[in-house]
Design a protein that fits this description.
Number of domains: 1
Oligomer: single chain
Shape: globular
Number of strands: 2
Strand content: 5-15%
Radius of gyration: 13 Å
Amino acid sequence: MEWIKKTLEEQSKDEKIIWKASNMHHPMFGLHYDDYQSIIDDFKPLVESHGYDVYFNGHEHLQHYGYTPTNNNPIHAWKK
């Protein structure tokens, strides 16, 4: 995780970066699978603290729109 922290910190100082996006295989919050708690616990706080705009993943092979739950209250967009 140290290299991720270092990279995010370096990118935070680059004023030329307009959009920040991240890509992982698994989603943080699953639609057909359980949530990936390790990603939620370890990675989500990092990208939030560095102002990331979007998180892409491909594990579930579908297009899914949502938003970042706050206050440890994951409210899924499809359950509204």
